[in-house]
Automatic annotation (TrEMBL):
Domain Peptidase M16 N-terminal: 36-180
Similarity remark: Belongs to the peptidase M16 family.
UniProt-recorded name of the protein: Peptidase M16
Spans traversing the lipid bilayer: none
Organism: Flavobacterium kingsejongi
Upper taxonomic lineage: Bacteria, Pseudomonadati, Bacteroidota, Flavobacteriia, Flavobacteriales
GO biological process: proteolysis
Single Gene Ontology MF annotation: metal ion binding
Length: 442
């Protein structure tokens, strides 16, 4: 009885925390198609201004990969009214910071300023959208920056080719088959006119969402948004091609040699549905159940108890069109990758056959409640979530009610989704091994 009361108290507490985290927002469209979302939070004298464009690696020409990520860098080069090299100086001089990031599905730019600099932030982002300077010197400069990033993140980083190799083997038709950073040969071969055409096509108001979050006056913000973004012309509507992959019906086997590692890794990857689906959210819970920390099933069994692996992990690599569920591990000698995967498969079969315990189910629910609170704990996080839920999910209200989807997932669904997607004949098995001595870098 005491345990039941404690569990009920815990559930009520997490529920009240989640309710208290409700995010208020207002959204509307400008005549040029730019979607605007406002979130007021006067708790700190800070504002976040962000623009998310619906363009990522999947929107690229297969012969010109890397363009979206390249523009993450290129659009800091300057505008008609912001001189080359001045962008970061202006931000710093006004007490702010800024950054950008790119995925397969979108590109996100943002500034964090003291709240008295909202007008400046809006002007800068409108300049980036209206009249960026895209010239040869900027392209050449950022080409070198991107090449150095590729060397650091992929070429010379231990296990840096894990995601690229999984993507290459899992997708044969969809643009998800290439990496966000793309091909350096493609970027070298691209003309200035191609970069300018890419900008004209995708970096337009009707392919973007503007989010203002923090401490601001609503009437003032709306006026400045209209003044700066309103005059920007609507772009030609973007027609996106739909790519579909044939189901995986037998195990795909691949090997990759990495000169940067000494310990081999075994990777099992399963193709999964869009992150917008309920199934993808169930897979999020399965990932946490299997390898979400040192108390998870696979970690306790394979690393702690049987000492078959140095490390094991799993994550649901969610994307707009498809996802990829990835399990990886570093076998510990004398155990082999095959032995380790045998234990992984046994645990998955249990998940597919039996319902997880009520205790494990409640632990999962608590973790997802905590994640929900953490994700909306900062104004920066809220701004990013508002943009993402609008642009990629098509429903801004998910910032408040997605947690209800996770709460409603049952133990039966966890069993059934594991049975639906996590089968040996539906996966890639990638042997990620040290390079042979003659292939190692000197």
């Amino acid at each position: 009885m005491k345990k039941s009361i404690m569990a009920l108290s815990s559930l009520l507490l997490t529920g009240s925390i989640a309710s208290a985290q409700n995010v208020a927002f207002e959204e509307y469209n400008l005549d040029n198609g730019l979607h605007v979302i406002l979130h007021k939070d006067p708790s700190a004298p800070v504002i976040i201004t962000s623009v998310m464009y619906h363009v990522g690696a999947k929107d690229e020409n297969p012969e010109r990969t890397g363009f979206a990520h390249f523009f993450e860098h290129l659009l800091f080069e300057g505008t008609k009214n912001i001189g080359r090299g001045e962008w970061f100086k202006i931000v710093t001089a006004n007490g702010g910071n800024n950054n950008a990031n790119t995925t397969e599905d979108r590109t996100y730019y943002y500034e964090v300023f003291p709240s008295n600099n909202l007008k400046l932030a809006l002007w800068m982002e409108s300049e980036r959208m209206l009249q960026p300077v895209i010239n040869q010197i900027g392209v050449d400069t950022q080409n070198e920056v991107v090449k150095e990033e590729k060397r650091l993140r992929y070429d010379n980083n231990p296990y840096g080719a894990l995601i690229p190799e999984v993507k290459k083997n899992m997708f044969k038709n969809h643009p998800y088959r290439w990496t966000t950073i793309g091909s350096m040969a493609h970027l070298d071969a691209a003309t200035l006119e191609e970069f300018q055409a890419f900008n004209k096509k995708f970096y337009i108001p009707n392919n973007a969402v503007l989010v203002v979050a923090g401490d601001f006056d609503t009437a003032e913000a709306k006026k400045w948004i209209q003044d700066y973004f309103g005059p920007i012309s609507k772009g030609t509507p973007i027609t996106r091609q739909k790519f579909e992959e044939a189901p995986i019906t037998q195990t795909i086997k691949a090997t990759y040699e990495d000169a940067n590692i000494q310990i081999p890794m075994i990777v099992a990857a399963y193709r999964t549905p869009s992150m917008k689906t309920r199934d993808a959210r169930v897979l999020d819970m399965i990932s946490t159940y299997l390898t979400g920390g040192k108390s998870s099933k696979l970690y306790k069994n394979i690393v702690d108890e049987k000492k078959m692996a140095l490390q094991i992990g799993a994550f649901n690599y969610s994307q707009e069109d498809y996802g990829t569920y990835i399990i990886y591990g570093l076998p510990m000698a004398p155990h082999t990758a095959s032995e380790m995967m045998g234990e992984v498969d046994k645990e998955i079969v249990k998940l597919q056959t039996d319902l997880i315990s009520e205790n494990d189910y409640q632990k999962l629910q608590n973790k997802f409640e905590n994640n929900y609170v953490s994700n909306n704990a900062s104004v920066e996080g809220i701004a990013s979530n508002l943009a993402t839920y609008y642009l990629l999910y098509g429903d801004v209200n998910l910032i408040n009610n997605e947690i209800e989807i996770y709460r409603s997932i049952t133990r039966e669904e966890i069993r059934d989704i594991a049975k639906k997607y996590l089968n040996p004949n539906q996966r890639l098995l990638l042997d990620y091994v040290p390079a042979k001595s003659e292939n190692k870098k000197i």
